[in-house]
Write a structure and sequence with these properties.
Helix content: 10-25%
CATH architecture: Roll
Number of helices: 4
Radius of gyration: 17 Å
Number of strands: 6
Structural class: alpha+beta
């Protein structure tokens, strides 16, 4: 991944970015669930087929991790991220299933005035599957460094 790092002053409200895709496998859904979210709908395809989603689905927390991975793979904050401050308005809208290919749209939603060489930027994230159906949305609030002088 080539770095395309931007610093605080390089971002403007309304800037838009789009990630490449990542395909989710059944094996990774089950592995994540074993470690972090051991519910039948994430662990057992046969049991999940009888459940409300009529098949195996990824944990929402797994989906969030994939979205964050896609954001970081954009390279926008590789050298400028100071720290994450939080996540707002996380919504899981549709299930993610084995074989889904996810991509991420990111918009710069807010910027606070910088101080001490960094400023808070709120990024609005929208995760889509291969049919352009939005499966998850959230906002990340991050302290981004200003350009070194």
């Amino acid at each position: 991944m080539a770095s395309t790092t931007r610093f605080y002053e390089d971002f403007s409200i309304g800037d838009r970015f789009h990630s490449g895709g990542r395909t989710v496998t059944e094996a990774e859904i089950i592995t994540f669930a074993h470690h972090f979210d051991p519910q039948a709908m994430h662990l057992d395809a046969q049991s999940a087929a009888q459940g409300p989603f009529q098949g195996l689905i990824a944990s929402g927390f797994h989906t969030m991790g994939i979205a964050w991975w896609l954001f970081l793979r954009l390279g926008l904050v590789t050298d400028s991220m100071f720290v994450g401050l939080g996540v707002n308005e996380l919504r899981w809208l549709k299930p993610v299933r084995p074989g889904d290919t996810l991509s991420l749209d990111v918009v710069v939603a807010e910027k606070s005035p910088p101080k001490n060489g960094r400023g808070a930027i709120t990024f609005a994230h929208s995760l889509q599957n291969q049919t352009d159906l939005t499966v998850m949305t959230y906002q990340s609030v991050n302290l981004i460094l200003q350009q070194p002088r």
